[in-house]
Amino acid sequence: SGKKIESKTTIFDTINFDWWKQHNDPYLEGYIITALEKNYDIKTAKLKIEQAGLAVQAQKADSMPQVSIGASPILGKFPDSTKSQGSFAMPVIASWELDLFLKNYDKTKAQKSLLKGTIYQSEALNIAIVSQVAAAYYNIVKLDKIIEIQEKLTKDREDIYSLKKIANKEGLCSTNDLILAQKAYILSNNDLLDLKKTRQNALNALAVLIGDSANNTKEYERISFDSLSDDFTIPAEISSEVIINRPDYKAIEKQLEASGIDVRVAKKEFLPTINILGLMTFIASSGSSFNWSDAFSLLGGSANLPLFTGFKRVANLKLKKNKYEQVLNDYQKTNLIAIQEINDSLFNLKTDKQKLLNNKKAFEIQKKDYGYSQTKFKLGTISKLDLLQEKEALLYTQQLLINAKTDCFIDRISLYKTTGARL
To answer: Are 335 and 248 in contact (CB under 8 A)?
Structure first.
């Protein structure tokens, strides 16, 4: 049953793969599919579902009659006899605990609830892993663009430093200004190295998420940052029904249900157990074979009620009630956290979208300023050094725009995750 539940179609439906297709990014879709197939946490979650399914089968088996067969060879010498005499017995024993008070039924029901909870936990994990894959992917795409801009900044810093050296030789620039230009060039190189290191770490993290070796990260393809569209709508509000449909919420709900059943079972431990026992034994002495006249059979029943067990049953009942209270607190906490996460994600998305619009305006203004500076440079009214400094300001503004745009994508992924993939 576990394999049927975790079919590829069901997994794709769980993560709302159609939502990811709307991004029109085949590279991202490929990484998501690979993660669903090869991520080791997801593989472990599938094994846990199988384990929970086997626990249900084991509990069902405890509710069924138990039959066993044995073999008992005997060799003995009786009084007033000089010879040993052997016999061979083959007992067949059948026993069944009559579930008059539905205790075993409740135990099976609790295991089924835990199985459903495990399935929901797996669905929540799928959504979380897909969200991590997408967040890592978009950060890598962003870093590609940031590194491209940082390389331009570093080249401009190098050109500025070269111009400062020439100006210093001609006495038009102080040694202090020259040193500052050199320092800026060196620091820009360091920033470039840090960015490349961060990108490689992000690629390595993506490799782990998709179950791949970090040695293959050079082959990882991705979309260009300029191709990313930020033309997406933001919901004005999120329905409260989204919370109760979140897989993690459903998982804790099933755990609470199972814990409640455990309390009921602990109460039923104070009731008597009723057992039916059947016994049939074939006994053959030396030199004879089994026949019906050698059979011995017995059918009976018993009702057992432990009078004193050292208060074990009382302690067990209190233990189950304590666990139920813990799970109930976790259930209520999950509800509050879900509301907080959705509100935070929605507010962050709205705020960062406004920041993105502001940065777009600032970038357009800076582009106009740089255009004016280019005109002035052609007319000879400003120096090349002034033009490079204006270009540097434009590149910095572009970096702010890139970061703001990426923040919006990360916020959307966060909202996707907190709504249980139901955007």
So the answer is: no
